[in-house]
Amino acid sequence: MRSLILLLALFSLTGCMKVSDMAAGTEYHLRDAGVLEHSDTRRASTWRLQADSFVFIAQSHFVPPGKAYPRPNVVAEEAFKAFVEYFPLVRRAAQPQGLEEAMNEARSSGAHYLLYTRFAGADDRIGTVVEWEDQEALDRLGVDSGVIQLMLIETNTRYLVDTARIRNRGGFLTFYDNQPEDMLRQPFERYARSLLGVSEQ
User: Fold this and answer.
1) What average pLDDT score do residues 78-83 get?
2) What is the mean pLDDT of the chain?
3) Which of 111, 127, 159, 192 has fewest C-beta within 10 Å?
4) 187: which residues sit within 8 A by CB, 6+ positions away?
């Protein structure tokens, strides 16, 4: 009798919620528990951009400390792939640039804003047999992590509109053959949505 009441209570609770909401909630908790990849974005301001804003994306020359060696310009590439879904006017630098060089190119291309990024930290842990054979260190087993820093600058006035910090952490179900740079797209999509004031999907 108790199991029947428990089963009826469970069905009544699930009847109040859409399947997509249940899936989103489950995914959130799995990410928070470290089973799936997780990222945390901290913005300094709540500034919003118009949808027709022209954003130029560039990455600094800075190489993150640690044992990870992400390919040059990977942050700008992933940011561009995320931003192009939300901003129709977006361009990116072809290679890493200094801040002044990026600002000059953004201005010459007619961009309203410069999104200047850098890979501030990256930890590429052992996640494959090949990596184990290279390092053979038990303390290097585990999930990858990384930190991205962003500056959003208005090109005409050089006003620092926003700064943000993105912390990424891999998950135990997704750590095999994963690199810190493989976790960039989703946080950049969330950041682009937050700049537009669009809620999470």
Assistant:
1) 94
2) 77
3) 159
4) 39, 41, 148, 166, 168
pTM of the model: 0.73
Strand order in the sheet with 90-92: 38-43, 160-169, 145-154, 113-123, 55-59, 90-92
Reference 82, options 57, 119, 53; nearest CA is 57
Task: Classify each residue of 19-53 as buried b or exposed e, where b means 16 or more C-beta atoms within 10 Å of its C-beta.
Answer: eeeeeeeeeeebbeeeebbbbebebeeebebeeeb
Q: 41-196, what's its fold?
A: Rossmann fold (3.40.50)
For the segment 169-183, the average pLDDT, to the nearest whole number, is: 56
Q: Specify the pairing of strand 160-169 against strand 145-154.
A: antiparallel
User: How far apart, in whole angstroms, are the C-alpha atoms of residue 155 and residue 159?
Assistant: 7
Of 39-53, 104-118, 168-182, least confident by mean pLDDT is: 168-182
